[in-house]
Amino acid sequence: xxxxxxxxxxxxxxxxxxxxxxxxxxxxxxxxxxxxxxxxxxxxxxxxxxxxxxxxxxxxxxxxxxxxxxxxxxxxxxxxxxxxxxxxxxxxxxxxxxxxxxxxxxxxxxxxxxxxxxxxxxxxxxxxxxxxxxxxxxxxxxxxxxxxxxxxxxxxxxxxxxxxxxxxxxxxxxxxxxxxxxxxxxxxxxxxxxxxxxxxxxxxx
Length: 205
Hints:
Layout: H1 9-23, H2 29-36, H3 40-47, H4 50-57, H5 68-71, H6 79-97, H7 101-107, H8 111-115, H9 123-140, H10 149-169, H11 182-194
Helix pairs in contact: 1-2, 1-4, 2-3, 6-10, 6-11, 9-10, 10-11
């Protein structure tokens, strides 16, 4: 008998994400294990339960991976460069997460599970507040026009999320940025609304 196949945690999580999105939260661990070429018990031994596997697959209870980009900034680079960098990271995140929303709703995760161990509240709330803080600091540096940073964060995040949500509910495919530079156009449009006013004594980008 051959040795059991060794799989990395990320391989398991990638296969689990695909199976949950394809079959829903009720997909069996055997189906996920079969995709990996391992046994169901071996899969559960690694994560404890299918529910814990689902939470790990979609990083439930954890801050989104793009958050470090905005926790300390803006830095000295042009704001448009930074806004594009952040937007690309958020777009990648929503491209993966929006199809998972129906799965998470079906799984019936509790608010406590969604919040995880983060003392700052739920991951979405923390992400929103952190993004608003980034805009507030840009204003304090004189690099962005006055306005409500929370409104700016809402518009920026919603603009990046909505096309993925719409594509999900209409069962359409979102083109890659190489096929259609939508994120670049969104940032350009957003910047026109928040750029420092000409002659207003503000610093450049």
